[in-house]
Amino acid sequence: MTMLPGVQRVGEFEWQVPVGYIPGMRVPGLFFLSEALAGTLEEGAVKQLANVATMPGIVRQSLAMPDIHWGYGFPIGGVAAFSLDEGVISPGGVGFDINCGVRLLATPLREGDLGKRRELVERLFGAIPTGVGGKSALRLSNRELDRMLLEGSSWAVREGYGIDEDIRMCEQEGCLKEADPAAVSQKARQRGMPQSGTLGSGNHFLEVQVVREVYHPEAARAFGISQGQVCIMIHCGSRGLGHQVCTDHLRILEAATKKYRITLPDRQLACAPIDSPEGRAYFGAMAASANYAWANRQVIMHYTRKVLEELYGVAYKDMHLVYDVAHNVAKMEEHLVGGTRMKVCVHRKGATRAFGPGAPDLPAAYSSVGQPVIIPGSMGSPSFLLHGTSGAMEKTFGSTCHGAGRVMSRTQAKKRLTGREIRDTLGKEGIIVKAPSDAAIADEAPEVYKPSMEVVRVVHEVGISRLVARFEPLGVIKG
Amino acid sequence: MSIEELDHTADAKVRVKAGTLEELFSEAGRALMQVMYGRPGKDGRTHPVMVSGDDLESLMHAYLSELLFITEVEGLVISGADLHIGEGIVEGVVMGEPFSMEAHNAGRGVKGISYSGLSIVHDQESYILDVIFDV
Q1: For A72, which of B5, B101, B116 is closest by C-beta distance?
Q2: Cα dist. A84→A130, A281, A341 in Å?
């Protein structure tokens, strides 16, 4: 097998990027990859992993999950923790789509109950605004938006978009308490107001799935999942509001980088000390955007439940939220570092929290198995449910992969297959796809991603999360 | 002047070439629209634009970020711009047409303009911009 020069193998699936790989590294880099995936690794992604290792106050290692790929700032799949006294916070470690994440809704329906599948997909597509320019039916005032930014999921539930139990089934109960709506600009508000409750475009989707295989019956039972069950997976983020927050604060933090005399190899890593006015402002605005995203997914789940209620007569309360996880976020968490418990600011960019059994912030029902980890596949490929582990707490600040990771550019993808061909092929496999245009489908063909099974196998083997169940798609709506 | 989409695994990377800086900014805006909507807009409406920045790259970053805001909030699909580029400032108007779901659905949403990989070089004949849009 071939590995990039300068990268050292330190375990069956573990690869180290030593200090010195690029100048200024404070800690080594460490990523997880199988031999089968080694050919997909881009030099740019490893360089970005090394860049993160140069940032002040980084603790232990700059990490990347097996879905590592070339992004901006951090690599996608990147995880890094920073000490609160010497460390920094950076939008480059979170990304433009703050709290892009995924939630899994379990229904009492079995695959055999699911007649009218095309109608289901059409109705979902009609109920949930998608794509570029998709506008929400919600009309928020500035004051209502403030409540949404402060409270996240619980705002949506209070407004009638869910049930109390939903709140407990979100990472962080769907709310980062540090949210500061005052740090969210008017521009971000203008972008966010008409978009709450919309799916967006790109790799965001809503998928009707069936549980095809259960690997870990005990954990599946705890999560309320069984073979043959119909579930809905919702993948989206903080829309234009989060994107604008990132853009606004990137500019502020670029000035702060100079002010605090921080030297960086990439401007997208612009950052400030965590406890500086600029760092606090970004954290407050980012937390507000994360709350917006949780509320957004809650509203979309509500529309979904209503469609299922109308079409199949399923009671609203009988469709339970399994869990909601964030993929792009920075959070204050306590972790064991060198034998001492330490509060750190963990950045996850295209990575999922994977807290193990007994960790704080888990619903009581999940405390003995660890949190559910939801890994969406690409359009038309399997998705996975895993559980968090103590291994993740030890190795990766309680983190694991977030998805498959692209291997082919969008320009190459479009040369290979048209959207229509992809839709027809998936249709033959029994997967109904509905999107605003064929162009949106052409970008996201299954073969442009790493095989999701192989990515998940690596995190399972490394022990930073363990497989619970595999889901196969029956219908997809995408933006 | 030219716009070329280059290979990038996760995002949309474009290269824009133009004879003058003003044209480079105008073409960069068209490139953003091409990615977002499948094609740039047509002339019709105008909207004022003004941004500041410490250097050329910051100016371009601020300008494209502003266009992203204008297109999303004002629903304007931009066709070009009439700009004056001064010391640390870009000001003028952008032209375009109103967004419609039917005419502008062949692209993909852009979340932000990346600083990573943003470069502007000037050779004897032209200015060349490389920029990555997070999609």
Answers
A1: B116
A2: 39, 15, 13
